[in-house]
Design goal:
The protein is an alpha/beta fold. It is about 35% helix and about 25% strand.
């Protein structure tokens, strides 16, 4: 492809969270609508979109490393676009440091990607990092084909300002998409083949809107409306904030049969002092009380969480408080990370940063507890009969993989198809998956 020729093929590589996966899918839809074709081999693509995440340490360096790897043997590069949160936070620096990058677009402006690519193909360099969230969603094309599971972003941004987090600066203030738009997109996803929809947001349970009758509803009301779609079998949501877990949503886990018995509810630490330093609005006890209320509504619910070890000033006793909270909850799964300073966040300037080897030791100890509880949860599932949504073929002949209602990976052997919901008995448990036997 010459430097002035419009790209015919593209490859989108998304890093990080599920919202980035959703954004990557929407960018691909935009480019496809312009007559371009997606290909798997990014080294052969005319256009490569690096859809970046800024949450973890060295995210920026990884972007530059990826840009460097796009140089071909003959010295040429594809047309490179950097999108996502790193683009939002460091767009000007990227343009200065990486001349091969022709497009920089933030997560609230990627609806302009086709026009920016066209301008770049004509010889320009384009940057767009404004945050008109509603303009973005209004400009995106109607959803078409989807797999058996699909993501649906319903809320973006964050007003919580946790001291370690860049999301308020890269994704902007909390904003909820309109109820009617979400119901319409969900119908389109189901028409395209989705049997399960995961509702996404930085604080997804902060979503609010008005239904068709003008009544104020929260996430529970939206989930109830989506449950009325006949061919939609399952509803999930992530990521939740404890401060926005209201009574209606807790009750929905008992009353809405399509709302899956799984809840991802990050706590980050079991120490009240650390939680306050993080600007988290809950205490360890209020979090445990909330978990007790959720379990009272749905006793079989699987719980997931997020943890940061080595936050500035964290003592051994405070880390022990986190381990105690893990023991008290019994998570089915969880994500855990070493604290990494993000430029511009208050925590980056706090005293008492923890040595790397200490953080390593704490992370290993925490993950050992999580792994123990995940295996215990899977083992406790043995003997259950449940539905499994078939997502893809397994490695062995005749083997299929799917998810249980509790988001466990289940493999079994039978004659089925992707998208089928099949009944299985869970007969063998490992730390990361279960074996099932199809009923009948």
């Amino acid at each position: 492809m010459s430097s002035t020729e419009h790209p015919r093929t593209f490859h989108v590589k998304s890093f990080g969270c599920q919202m980035n996966v959703y954004d990557g899918e929407r960018m691909a839809e935009l480019l496809t609508a312009q007559g371009m074709h997606a290909i798997d081999a990014r080294e052969d693509a005319d256009l490569v979109v690096l859809n970046t995440c800024h949450i973890r340490e060295r995210a920026t360096e990884k972007v530059y490393s990826d840009i460097g790897r796009l140089r071909r043997e003959d010295g040429t590069t594809p047309l490179i676009a950097v999108a996502g949160c790193v683009a939002q936070a460091e767009g000007a620096e990227i343009m200065a440091r990486a001349p091969s990058v022709r497009v920089v677009v933030g997560p609230q402006a990627y609806h302009r990607l086709p026009q920016m690519v066209a301008a770049a193909a004509a010889g320009g360099r384009e940057t767009e990092t404004d945050m008109p969230a509603e303009a973005k969603f209004a400009a995106l094309p109607r959803r078409r084909k989807s797999g058996p599971t699909a993501f649906l972003t319903i809320q973006e941004g964050c007003d919580k300002f946790c001291t370690y987090c860049v999301v308020p600066y890269t994704r902007g203030a909390e904003i909820s998409r309109p109820y009617a738009d979400l119901v319409d997109e969900a119908h389109a996803l189901v028409d395209g083949g989705a049997r399960e929809i995961t509702l996404l947001g930085q604080n997804v349970n902060a979503w609010t809107g008005e239904d068709g009758a003008g009544r104020a509803v929260g996430l529970a009301g939206l989930a109830q409306a989506l449950a009325a779609i006949p061919d939609l079998a399952r509803i999930r949501y992530t990521t939740s904030h404890p401060a926005d877990m209201d009574d209606a949503l807790i009750e929905a886990h008992a009353s809405n049969p399509k709302l899956m018995p799984f809840l991802h509810l990050p706590v980050q630490s079991g120490s009240d002092r650390v939680l306050k330093a993080m600007n988290r609005s809950h205490t360890a006890q209020s979090y445990l009380d909330l978990i007790a209320r959720v379990r009272a509504a749905r006793p079989d619910i699987a719980l997931s969480g997020d943890f940061i070890v080595g936050f500035p000033g964290e003592t051994e006793a405070e880390f022990a408080d986190t381990l105690a909270l893990i023991d008290a909850v019994g998570y089915a799964q969880a994500f855990s990370f070493k604290y990494s300073a993000r430029p511009g966040t208050p925590a980056a300037d706090m005293p008492g940063h923890i040595a790397a080897d200490v953080m390593d030791d704490r992370l290993q100890a925490l993950q050992a507890r999580i792994n123990r509880d995940q295996l215990a949860f899977n083992q406790a599932s043995l003997g259950r009969r449940c539905s499994v949504l078939v997502e893809r073929r397994g490695r062995q002949a005749g083997q299929w993989l799917g998810k249980s209602p509790w988001l466990q990976s289940v493999h079994f052997t039978d004659e089925v198809a992707v998208g089928d919901l099949v009944e299985v008995d869970l007969i063998e448990a490992g730390p990361n998956s279960l074996a099932g036997r199809r009923v009948g």
